[in-house]
Amino acid sequence: MTDSDAARREILRAVRENLKPRGIAPGSAEPVQSTADPGPATEGPQGPTKSFRAARGSTARFTERLAAVGAHCTVVSGEAEAAGALAGILSGAGARRVAGSDAPLAQRLLRPLGDRLEIAAGESLSRDELFACDVGVTTAQWGIAETGTLVLESARERSRLLSLVPPIHVAVLSTRCICESLGDALARVRQGASHAITFITGPSRTSDIELTLVVGVHGPQTVHVLLLEET
Amino acid sequence: MRVSLFATCLADQLWPAAAAGAVRVLRRVGCDVQFDERQTCCGQPAFNTGYRPEACALARRLIEIFESSGADAIVSPSGSCTAMLHHYEQLFEDAGWRARARGLAERTHELSAFLVNRLGVEDVGASFAGRLTWHDACHGLRDLRIKDEPRRLLRHVRGAELVELPPPGAETCCGFGGTFSVKYPEISVAILDEKVDAIERAGVDAVVSGDASCLMQIGGRLSRRGSAVRALHLAEVLASTT
Amino acid sequence: MTFDRDARTALADAQLRGALRHATTLFGERRRAAIADVPDWEGARDRARAIKDETLLHLDQYLEQFAANAERAGARVHWARDAAQACDIIAGIAEQRGARTVVKSKSMASEEIRLNAALAARGIAAVETDLGEYIIQLAGEEPSHIVVPAIHKTKGQIAALFAEKLGMEPSDDVTRLAAAARQALRRRFAEADLGVSGVNFAVAETGTILILENEGNARLTTSLPRTHVALMGIEKVIPRFADLEVFLRLLPRSGTGQALTAYQSLLTGTKRQPGDEGPEELHIVLLDNGRSRMLTSPVTRQTLACIRCGACLNACPVYRQIGGHAYGSVYPGPIGAVLTPQLLGMGESSALPYASSLCGACRDVCPVKIDIPAVLLHLRAQAVARSGGPGTHRLLERLAFWAYAAVMVRPRLFEWVMRCARTLHILPPLGAWTKWRDLRPLAPRSFREEWRRGLRHEAGR
Predict the structure, then answer these.
(1) Which helix (H) or strand (E) holds A160?
(2) Are residue B77 and residue B8 in the same domain, yes or no?
């Protein structure tokens, strides 16, 4: 038996022993009823129409929250418009080295820009190249309206480092994938398939020095969301 | 309404105006007030310092004394001592004593809560000229949830102007904490000075509270700092008719 | 432990006190604003506490479930009975992988077990990457606050520190200071062989660990190096994935007044394809170190519900005056005052449970409704019940309370003693009171004397 196995036995035994005086027998789990928190959007008396109303209002809420947390947002309809908006963002930022994830949508949006910029595919980058990038472009799988949060699931967006290392992160998200609350998002992500699920709410920040806010510490300083309106 | 007064040892010996004021106010609103002279201390100092057997002995005694009172209610001019009685149940393992402690707690009220919530009275016919500010004593505020009641009573006092300390000023601890005030006096006074600074900035004639212990702490520092601001117990103000 | 002395030192430090006043006030305001947004804050607290209670009552099952699911997803789960074993496990992992530099994101548990020193003793350098932790690591100090560890330092002090240690041009500009740290640390991230992180929540149902942060250093720590070690106290486990919602609603608001921190990483085992991004290995270390002992009684068990938000520090009138260092341990403030004595034993930290006015402000703000005053009172009773307390102070105190109890059960004796004190002006030596506060004189007549002299029969007026 390894030391860790021995410790495991000791700890579990200690836990069971120490719980005994209460008369709770191990194995009699009595789960708390319904811990799933419905969240603010589903509380209240709206009834059956609320989910439709939520869907209509979600995009507006999401963009509002994005602004509140310091992320930029551009709403576009269709990929052509998206590619144009992306080009605008990149030139506006004076970006020269841009890396896109291998997600097909990210690749499609970046392709037309290949003659003006150094575009790399995320997974082919060395560490040094990754750290030298100006902009990382990824997809996002979900948006959370309640908090202005982007959700990336590693099974579908394989390059999280592009949303983290370059100082600018551009995320492409479909409006159809905006959910209302944290609870909704947690219900939709599939942690079985994705070993890493990342929630991103605005740019990186710290208040560690005299409680003064600094934006852009270890993660990106700027987050752009390209919101693809799809009907 | 027959009331048995739980005077508290501190008010009895160090702030009798609080206990006397409580008697007068309760009588003015029509209660028949008794005082059982066998009472001394509720045991809070012992309990708070970790001396549970001693606290237990005093608790048993007080439970017996008040059980024999035959009163409808036990009323006290102290939030912390009332809260102590409400915690008596925790001191006992025996189911019989726990039930008796529970019974006592149900009948025991802090003065302002009794007047406003049990008797439905906010105007006790008091007069007191001056600018006052209220200090929420911690046990009364957080254990007994007394917040609104003293303010309602004070607002009906003729001639009194109630000034609220800027939030969270009224609710911050005065730093007394029982033996804490002498075990860690520097910390106690550091906490106290923030409270006293706020009181002085408020430009009031007096600070009023429902706990004599807080008043000793705050009053003691006010006078040491040469302040003209007085420390008064709620019962003193409510009993005042001048 | 030298609480008395350290508290006095802190009280004499005007700059520290100003910083603490500013920080605790600001955090208090931000928290209040953030919770005003939540439709049923009290309901959320109750739910979270219920989940914690349920978990702790069946902790063995949930730990086993968590370990099984984490392992199924590819993680290696290690169990550590105490600090020494945990350090040994982590150092062992580092050594086996030939790791020379380790990057660390914020982990109070790692400070509790003194991991950095243990790694250093085995020739492994650990670099803190959370900005506040990085600052205090450079300064060789301990954290003074759970959420903002370097709150006791001015930007001037940090500028001087960075000038000395990083060769940076001294600058008071906070943005430039942060940028200097970012620059210095990026190289370490790129080169590190191993990343050590903490864990905020561990989900039994799925084997997922969740890490919250604002800076991005935890994401870098847990995705760049090929080995990731996640250290967690055994109390961090929660039953279901869906339970995360209520804790995510409570923790950021309570801690920093944010609706959500910038990043949450939900990690379930290792990457599914070898070519994917992310570490090759995930090691999760489950740490006991005294936690299982706290399960014995309901009063102490609630200590384990803590989600390390720091709200109690910001609400505490004592912490506000003395800051974190005086508590002499990695966990300061109200939660520290109850956790440290239980982890280290009362002998080590007997002062802590008494360093409180029992005001209860901490209980009001705790997102999981830990009744800290009740735990403090429990520990005080334990301190007294332990026979042979240190020093004559305890003996004198025992005598005093024996006398007090003897007097208080005898009302006539009580009156007589007080009358003596009154007429002879005898008072117990209370220099600790009178040095700063006037003592209210004993009234010429006690209430009970007034009662007997006529108040008893006075008509209502």
Answers:
(1) none
(2) yes
ipTM: 0.96
Domain ranges, residue A189: 53-229
- Residue A70 is given by DSSP the state T
Q: Are C234 and C79 in contact (CB under 8 A)?
A: no
Domain assignment of residue A81, yes or no: yes
Q: Which of B87, B117, B147 is the last residue of a domain?
A: B117
Same domain, B190 and B157: yes
Q: Which pLDDT does position C206 carry in this prediction?
A: 97
The reply to whether omega before A166 is within 30° of 0 (cis) is: no
Q: pLDDT confidence of C1, banded at 50, 70, 90?
A: low
Whether B175 and B159 map to the same domain: the answer is yes
- The pTM is what? 0.94
Number of domains in chain A: 1
CATH of the domain at A124: 3.40.50.10420
CB pairs under 8 A between B and C: 189
Residues B156 and B232 in one domain: yes
- Tell me which of C363 and A96 has the higher pLDDT: C363
Instruction: For chain C, give every domain's residue range.
Output: 1-33+311-386, 38-289, 399-457
- The answer to whether the Cβ–Cβ distance between B48 and C447 falls below 8 Å is no
Identify whether A45 is part of a domain.
no
Interface of B with C in 180-219 (CB under 8 A): 180-192, 216-217, 219
Q: What is the CATH number of the domain that holds B218?
A: 3.40.50.1860
Same domain, B107 and B139: no
Chain C contact for A47 (CB, 8 A cutoff): no
Least confident of B215-219, C98-102, C418-422: C418-422
Alpha-carbon distance A98 to A89, whole Å? Answer: 12
Q: How far apart are CA A179 and CA C299, in angstroms?
A: 40
B145 interaction partners in chain C (CB closer than 8 Å): none
Higher pLDDT, A2 or C368: C368
Question: Which tokens sit at B202?
Answer: 């408020």
Are residues B113 and B8 part of one domain?
A: yes
Lowest-confidence region among C24-28, C312-316, C342-346, C375-379 = C342-346
Q: What tens digit of pLDDT does each residue of C284-337 get?
A: 999 999 999 999 999 999 999 999 999 999 999 999 999 999 998 889 999 999
Q: Does residue A25 belong to the interface with chain C, where contact is any CB pair within 8 Å?
A: no
CATH node for C38-289: 3.40.50.10420
Find the CB nearest C295 among A15, A32, A202. Answer: A15
B68 shares contact with chain C (CB less than 8 Å): no
The residues, ordered by sequence, that sit 6+ positions from A69 with a Cβ below 8 Å of its Cβ are A147, A148, A201, A202
Distance CA C43, CA A183 (A): 16
Query: Which chains reach chain B with 3 or more Cβ–Cβ distances below 8 angstroms?
Result: C
CB proximity list for C36: less than 8 A, separation 6 or greater? none
Instruction: Provide the CA B119 distance to its chain's centre, in angstroms.
Output: 18
Query: How is residue C458 annotated by DSSP?
Result: P
Pair B138, B212 in one domain: yes
pLDDT at A35 over 60: no
Whether A210 sits inside 8 A of C19 (CB atoms) is yes
φ/ψ of residue C152, rounded to 5: -80, -5
Residue of B7, B38, B46 with shortest CB distance to C401: B46
Pick from C433, C442, C456: CB nearest B182: C433
**H or E element: which one contains C56?**
helix C41-57
- Strand locations in A125-175 (E): 135-139, 142-144, 149-153, 168-174
Is the residue at A176 inside a domain? yes
Q: What is the domain count for chain B?
A: 2
Residues of B in contact with C4 (CB under 8 A): 184
Range of the domain at B231: 122-239
Domain containing residue B105: CATH number: 3.40.50
Give the neighbours of chain C: at least 3 Cβ pairs within 8 Å.
A, B
